[in-house]
Amino acid sequence: MKNKILMIYDDISYGGGAERVICNFSNSLIASGYEVMVFSIALSKQCPYEYHQEVVIRFIKENAKPKGLAKILHEIKRLIMPIKKWNAIKKRAVFKQAINEFNPDFIICHTHFDNSLTKIFKKMQDKIIKVVHNSFDAYEKWQIDLNIYKNIVLLSNHDINKFKTKYPNSNFYIIPNFIPNISNLNTNYSQKVVLSMGRMANTDQKGFLRLIDIWKLIQDSGEFNDWKLHIVGDGDLKEQIKTKIENLNLSNSIILKPFTKDVESEYLSASIYAMASHFEGLPMVLIEAGSYALPTIAFDIATGPSDIIEEEKSGYLIEDNNLDEYANKLKILMQDESLRAKMGAKSKEIVKNKFSKEVVMKQWMELFERIKNNA
């Protein structure tokens, strides 16, 4: 009999790194002989990533409308309860129904839940694995409480002591994200293109606005007028990004592109990957860039880049918000094709050894067995 895994997330239809991780993980579990259901609290548009046909996808809006007496009671409750409370009850009911129907061996939570779902979790501690996709400081800033989770997976060991101190009754495990396939292709280092990709959220988590400032410093030097910066993504911040590019007279050297499923073409069109994020968990873009043998550069923020980039071997880690240093190190890469090739080869080696599907899925299989034996 196959083991069953239930994945949970806010909205799998967004085109970001976490959404891609969940898709890759679900497909790999199917390939490993598991049954998988993905429960997306919302599904605001068509999912941009291709799930295996055997992955069952459920979401709140999919729930069938009640009939007969149940419909009458449903309408009475809806009318007499505050909308917020009613929506919470509806979420919990649909989620509970999905759990009862699927009867999973494990529930893997990739999101942080509102209080409408925590009551269900408290009764299922041994089945639940919480995956933390961001830093401890981010969770503190967002006031997210992890006390209900017995088993918590972190993507790196940077914050493990902070998490253990705050949540002494939880078990913590380190398992990174993976990419499903490491490309056999390497980029062409003669291409004079720097690439950056990500969701353009209002918070500017990905740091595109400060990346534009860095590019301005580089262009003002007058040495790299034949280079282009490609920024790929969509979101609420895109118009502000576009306006800033125009105001700084960078429209000729910065190319804005929409979100695309064909990320391979983007990686293979560049010879450097630049990330300017303010905070991350474990950034998939750096791992993916490494699989195409791209050298990478990023700010040395609390978590993420330092787990992937080896300083001066596969790329550069820059003191956070030091735009001048970032620009200088990026210029070093831009003016030296042989250095790009050397660092790119090291990037690919790191990805193969730490972030391949085979390495990471083995860690998940071992965790399932460990939790099952300790239950």
Automatic annotation (TrEMBL):
Source species, domain of life: Bacteria
Listed InterPro entries: Glyco_trans_1 (IPR001296), Glyco_trans_4-like_N (IPR028098)
Gene Ontology molecular-function annotations: glycosyltransferase activity
Which Pfam families does this entry report, sorted A to Z?
Answer: Glyco_transf_4 (PF13439), Glycos_transf_1 (PF00534)
PANTHER family in alphabetical order? GLYCOSYLTRANSFERASE
Q: What is this protein called?
A: Glycosyltransferase, family 1
